[in-house]
Amino acid sequence: MSAHTTRNTPLATPAELGTVLRAQRKAQGLTLEQLSGLSGLGMRFLSELERGKSTAELGKTLQVARLLGLDCFLVPRSQSSSTATAFDGKAG
Fold first, then answer.
1. Which CATH number does the domain housing residue 59 bear?
2. ∠ CA(43), CA(49), CA(53), 5° rounding?
3. At what angle do helices 32-39 and 58-67 cross, to 10 degrees?
4. For residue 60, what are the domain limits?
5. Which of these, 14, 61, 15, lies nearest to 39 by C-alpha position?
6. 49 and 24 in contact (C-beta within 8 Å)?
7. Dihedral over Cα of 34, 39, 41, 46: its sign
8. Is residue 49 within 8 Å of 62, Cβ to Cβ?
9. What phi, psi does 58 have (nearest 5°)?
């Protein structure tokens, strides 16, 4: 799995977020088709999201993350290396 699936690892690019989402989907044994059915989102959108398309709609992106049991946090950079979590990849 990617280093970005661990706690306290900042995500700097859409591609890094896509990598985490793909890893979580696969860890849950879901295909893109199954995730599409669960989320109501198109397979094309999901595929592009996992490939790091920078214009992916934020609301839909957060919907996918929540569905996969992921929480997303935004914290000041000054805190992210110490106590706060930039991305929390725990299963919910």
1. 1.10.260.40
2. 125
3. 110
4. 3-88
5. 61
6. no
7. negative
8. no
9. -60, -45
DSSP string, the chain: --GGGSTT----SHHHHHHHHHHHHHHTT--HHHHHHHHT--HHHHHHHHTT-TT--HHHHHHHHHHTT-EE----HHHHTTTS-SEE----
Cα(84)–Cα(75) distance, integer angstroms: 7
Q: For the chain, which ranges sit under pLDDT 50?
A: 1-3, 82-87, 90-92
pLDDT of residue 73: 86
Which token pair is 1?
A: 């799995």
Q: What is the spatial distance between Cα 77 and Cα 79, in angstroms, rounded to a whole number?
A: 5
* pTM as predicted: 0.75
Tally of domains within the chain: 1
